[in-house]
């Protein structure tokens, strides 16, 4: 039995006598009131409320925090995370807008856009395995891959254009392979139907570079921009506004949907160019250049009544499609060609005009009263002798290209008599000439030496030499020999072919100088009106007609055409006389002309006879295909 003993006035259970308590004893035993009180206090003591309060507060705080976080993410930051979610599902790519098309005056396309494929790479999705795959499927050289690898290291931008204008085989191979981070998109590429025939007019495209981005930060990476010709001059009009493309990528699928934000195409251009005439003139020039063993030349046709350029050929041409296709081999051949096909001789070439300058001096001589139409000069013995102050026994000799005998103004123009124009320009013995000041004044009246403002890039300014220029350039003092050379279009006188033809058009149309242009417009762009005596003008025109109609004329080869044309031949010595350029200016009709023509072939061997076949065949074609159709 359990025994109780008193200890410090308290009671406790003594277990010494019995180590274990049987269940029955626990159930049957009833302690005294003291034990009851002890057990009530020790065994039935209530649990404290503090833990429950703490737990409740913790749960309340936790739920409150969760509520506010859910509210923050789902309401306050809803748009932000919706955007992030969309970015994971969609990728935005900017694609070039379709460039404006280019047509000739009759609506024939000269530059158009055709369907193509462009390949893009997503920097955030691409990996080395994908890069290895794509290298096997597209044709890029080492330099291009090196450039791409550098672009991959840059932090700006997500999408990178790998290649444009994929071949059909490349497009099929890529679409049939699931490559992470690679996007194949439909696009447009520039195409020039006539290639090199119109290259000197249309120009070509190239990828935007660092210099372009400085001036035009809105350009896209690898965007194709105008590099020459009209493509460059009218770049802002032709470009348009790029498209925005949203690419949707679904789980375990290739990009399945493309949503386009409509692009704004560039503006189309209608030109003054006659495509049929351009093709003809290119073929005629090419044929003649090859026949005589030359390599370079040019031809231009202008309407003298409004400044419209009907044809413009700089030979040799080049295939401008090579730059669009990024054909490295063809591009290399173009860039390394010693004849410089990218150089536009019409607007950037500077040449001595030779005898084609003589009609301007003839008009100046008549206007200033230096000569009359009847004034005759004897050019025998075919040269002029001038004393040489430095070597009296060695006088300066200024020769004519041929002995002509007695010549008046019209015949001097027709036979291109140098001595007549030596007299007229610089004078000789008792005959007073115009002098360099007056020569320059009259040439400037026709804007010779100035830029014409034609809508092509890189037009050069000509050079009208005078004593001041020669002194400043360190070439010594001006001499009478310099004036003689200037009088026949030689020496330091340099003009662009477009400036020469445009001034000739103003001469033969009665004195209205138009701004030559390639963009078709109903408005005439008059630069200035040049005043001179109509009688004097008529005498010069008669001389130009005698060039082709008189047996002694340098252009008599053209007399059997079904139409009468007038013109002026020219030969210009360059490179110290080691090379001769042949020129011919012509217009039709003789009065109130509708076309003026300039043909030039560089480094010829038979002077003007080299260019006359081109002139003759052109006007024969013009008669059969343009004039007879009007009758």
Helix content: 25-40%
Distance between the termini: 151 Å
Strand content: 15-25%
- Major sheet: 5 strands, mixed
Tally of alpha and pi helices = 24
Question: What is the count of β-strands?
Answer: 23
Stretches where pLDDT falls below 50 for ≥5 residues?
1-11
Structural class: alpha+beta
* Overall pLDDT: 87
Q: Overall 3D geometry?
A: elongated
Radius of gyration: 45 Å
Reconstruct the topology from this structure.
Elements: E1 3-7, E2 10-14, H1 23-28, H2 33-43, H3 50-76, H4 78-89, E3 90-95, E4 102-103, E5 109-122, H5 128-137, H6 142-153, E6 159-164, H7 168-175, E7 182-191, H8 199-202, E8 205-207, H9 210-215, E9 224-226, H10 229-233, H11 235-239, E10 243-248, E11 257-261, E12 269-270, H12 275-292, E13 297-302, E14 309-315, H13 321-325, H14 328-336, H15 345-348, H16 358-368, E15 377-378, E16 383-386, E17 396-399, E18 406-407, H17 409-415, H18 418-426, H19 435-445, H20 467-472, H21 480-487, H22 497-508, E19 512-514, E20 526-529, H23 534-549, E21 566-574, E22 579-588, E23 595-604, H24 612-627
Parallel strand pairs: 4-12
Antiparallel strand pairs: 1-2, 3-10, 4-5, 5-6, 5-7, 8-9, 10-11, 13-14, 13-23, 15-18, 16-17, 19-20, 21-22, 22-23
Helix pairs in contact: 12-24, 16-23, 17-23, 18-21
